[in-house]
TrEMBL record:
Coiled-coil residue spans: none
Gene Ontology MF terms in the entry: glutamate-1-semialdehyde 2,1-aminomutase activity; pyridoxal phosphate binding; transaminase activity
Keywords, sorted A to Z: Aminotransferase, Isomerase, Pyridoxal phosphate, Transferase
Alphabetical list of SUPFAM superfamilies matching this protein: PLP-dependent transferases
Name of the protein: Aminotransferase class-III
Chemical reaction(s) catalysed: (S)-4-amino-5-oxopentanoate = 5-aminolevulinate
Biochemical pathway: Porphyrin-containing compound metabolism
Originating organism: Nitrosopumilus maritimus (strain SCM1)
Cofactors that this protein relies on: pyridoxal 5'-phosphate
Top-level taxon: Archaea
CDD domains for the chain: OAT_like
Classification via InterPro entries: Aminotrans_3, Aminotrans_3_PPA_site, PyrdxlP-dep_Trfase, PyrdxlP-dep_Trfase_major, PyrdxlP-dep_Trfase_small
Family, similarity comment: Belongs to the class-III pyridoxal-phosphate-dependent aminotransferase family.
Amino acid sequence: YIKEYKKKTKTSAKLFSKSAKLHVNGVSHNIRFYEPYPFVVKKSAGKNLVDVDSNKYTDYWMGHWALILGHGPNSVKKNLQKQIEKSWMYGTVNEQTIQLSELISKAVPVAEKIRYVTSGTEATMYAVRLARSVSGRKVIAKIDGGWHGYTSDLLKSVNWPFSESESSGVVNEEQIVSIPYNDLEKSLSILKKYSKDLAGVIIEPVLGGGGCIPADSEYLKGVQEFCKKNNSLFILDEIVTGFRFRFGCLYPTMKLDPDIVTLGKIVGGGLSIGVMCGKKEIMEAADTTGKKKSERSYVGGGTFSANPASMVAGYSTLDYLKSKKTVYSKINDLGKFARKEIGKAFDGKVAVTGKGSLFMTHFLQNGISEIRNSADAAKCNGGLLAKYHFKMIAHDGIFFLPGKLGAISNAHSKEDIKKIVKASEEFTC
Ligand code: PMP
């Protein structure tokens, strides 16, 4: 397949060699590189990416899973165009932000106060900082293999299935503790050891980058209960899961009561965003207006926080999702179909994990039959998964970032999923 790929991506090869001279790894996010070189994209529309050699791919990477309505949906495009005519940067309070926040705060009960940043990484960074300043403690617990962006406070070499060491250059490793997903007994025993110093716990309700693995609600409830008793903050990272399965977050369906929730991806409608929201009394710890210096906690923002382009793209996406609730039933059903049929295509050799419109194929080996956490995912054959995805890029016109999970958007159809199933049947492992 490498030969086939090289033959059809000659312009990409030339451009990528230029890119490799100019950029670290030739890319601007480590995960975007794959062998022999990533194709260079020319344009995108609906479910498709088109590369500079005019090859068309049905996309399941979907802008790091941000594009729930597909690439360039009209409902977002027309509002964005109108906004661009007015301005794409104010750097001051604007009405577009208020409109997006009104939608978010109605749909996400815990969002009593909101702060916008421009990436998920910053949102989790500030969530952790707030947990530390509110609790007066230093240690943060995270899930082994959980991914919250390149926030230095949340990187540690753990059982991370898809990379060896993420923590080079991180100075406070001793203040980060890992707990195993979906193993309440072990998690609680670790948390108890750190209880006096534990500022908070941060968890994704569906592990995204760490293997596309849903959490048991009993697991999350158990960790939450520990946090409440221990006066540690319970933080849910819903950057992937927020507005992905329903209009709102996943946590209310599990009857959880987090202190802080982080959002991103979908709520920016394809433009840069990060959101930290939470209970008033906690978020207000960071409200500096009228407080004495000694009483202030700081969470930040930046040059591009709440820029009107991101706010309008986010608002238009959520407004569409709110008015067309069938989007969720459609893409959730397609996800269910994909998990079932891809599993069948491999005749028991894989586990297809996920929830709703998210799915990921794990090639089973080492006695693993079920994927419950990143340690299980790490024991599967990640190399084979990358080959399977690469074969689809080179041969079938289907794009998954090799080794990563797929996200179905409103632009996909059942016929598209059937093509993945066919490509799976043809893949010899
Ligand atoms: N949290 C989760 C759960 C994520 O999946 C990601 C990114 N994939 C982030 C945080 C970081 O977001 P960003 O890439 O926008 O910084």
